[in-house]
Design a protein that fits this description.
Layout (H helix, E strand, L loop, with lengths): L1 H11 L3 H18 L3 H13 L5 H17 L3 H14 L4 H13 L3 H14 L4 H13 L3 H16 L11 H9 L3 H14 L4 H13 L5
Helix pairs in contact: 2-3, 2-4, 3-4, 4-5, 4-12, 5-6, 6-7, 6-8, 7-8, 8-9, 8-10, 10-11, 11-12
């Protein structure tokens, strides 16, 4: 009888399994925000290995876990997850951006440039991709192309394209990272965390700035 009831429940609620994995993913993000790293890792792993997610939903889970690894300095694990996300959903600009930033921070400037260019091609209004690409180009010695990306940032600022959870214009807040003034960037991201504590992207960006300062704690 119990087996019959279980089978009926699966038929009646075909999305229940997917909901369980999605809830695990949401819970993992919440645990990460609360500083519960072990629990967050367990829930990320559980959501991904459940077999209940597929396509874009699975790509989102891999990318979220990749962000989790990146903030904690586990570059190889983060790259592996970002690559899985891109294989599943190659048309998502945010995924190319995330891998591009990580490759840049790892010293692979050419690889980072390729990823960030793909992000910009997919979403020309992706301000942070323009910002990071400008930094890459500057470090590669192409100051002219870097200036073009900065001009695009100014255009986005004038169009009032703000990133959720951030205060102030794009040109002001991103210039710190473009010019590698990471202490000022961290101070700004601290304000952003207070303004938008439920935005995982804010924590990722602050983590990357802290990594550049050698602060891995």
């Amino acid at each position: 009888m119990a087996l019959v009831l279980l089978m009926c429940a699966v038929v009646a609620f075909p999305g229940s399994a997917m909901a369980g994995a999605a809830q695990d993913l949401d819970a993992a993000r919440h645990a990460e925000l609360m500083g519960e790293s072990d629990e967050a890792r367990r829930l990320f792993d559980q959501a991904i290995s459940s077999g209940e997610l597929e396509g874009g939903a699975l790509a989102e889970a891999y990318n979220a876990r990749g962000d989790f690894f990146a903030v904690r300095g586990d570059t190889q694990a983060a790259l592996a997850d970002f690559e899985q996300a891109l294989e599943l959903d190659p048309d998502k600009a945010a995924y190319w951006y995330d891998r591009g930033v990580l490759r840049k921070e790892s010293g692979d400037l050419q690889g980072a440039l390729e990823d960030l260019t793909r992000a910009v091609d997919l979403d020309s209004s992706h301000a942070l991709a323009h910002m990071e690409r400008a930094s890459c180009l500057q470090r590669l010695g192409d100051s002219g192309a870097a200036a073009q990306d900065r001009e695009r940032l100014a255009e986005l600022d004038q169009a009032r394209q703000y990133r959720p959870g951030y205060s102030g214009p794009i040109e002001t807040r991103t210039s710190w990272q473009v010019n590698e003034e990471y202490s000022q960037a961290v101070a700004h991201y601290n304000d952003a965390v207070r303004a938008s504590p439920n935005d995982p992207g804010v924590y990722v960006d602050r983590g990357l700035a802290l990594m550049n300062l050698g602060r891995l704690d």
